[in-house]
Write a structure and sequence with these properties.
With 148 residues, the chain is an alpha/beta fold. It contains 5 helices and 5 strands; from the N terminus they run E-H-E-H-E-H-E-H-E-H. The chain has a single domain, classed as Rossmann fold.
Length: 148
């Protein structure tokens, strides 16, 4: 018999730093996600391409500095395939650059986390995203009610 299929959404983490990737994977092991670590962008792209047509990941965490294909380029490619309004994308970087954070958000990310990743910051960013999404849904419902 094979391994049981997880019902938890997939969190695809792309980071070429093995220590950072292990830290994130270990830190999120008991989270609401099944963590899928990838060491390079091409591995991440192959992973999502192998999934069934209706498969939707739960979230992406992408390191800014990656070999061959930079983090921003990977973000752009993935947001062409997966709607960033439905799936959160988070960028990570060792550097705290407001310009990089702004570019990440313009490209569809919900934010930028400084490495090493603080799981308190991760949870706060995810909760802020969920709250914004909920407010948008409630606002949309209120608009629909007002137009009847």
């Amino acid at each position: 018999m094979g391994q049981p299929v997880s019902t938890k959404p997939a969190l695809i983490v792309i980071d070429n730093d093995p220590e950072s990737l292990r830290s994130i994977t270990d830190g999120l092991a008991k989270s609401e996600f099944t963590v899928c670590p990838c060491t390079d962008p091409k591995q991440a792209l192959r992973y999502v391409e192998r999934q069934p047509a209706r498969w939707q990941p739960g979230m992406f965490m992408i390191d800014l500095i990656l070999p061959e294909l930079g983090g921003f380029e990977l973000l752009r490619r993935l947001t062409m395939k997966y709607d960033p309004r439905a799936i959160p994308f988070v960028m990570m970087s060792k550097h705290d650059s407001p310009e990089d954070a702004m570019e990440a958000q313009q490209d569809g990310a919900i934010g930028m986390l400084k490495k090493p990743v603080s799981f308190e910051s991760f949870n706060r960013l995810l909760e802020e995203h969920r709250l914004k999404k909920l407010k948008a849904q409630v606002g949309s419902m209120a608009f629909k009610i007002d137009t009847y």
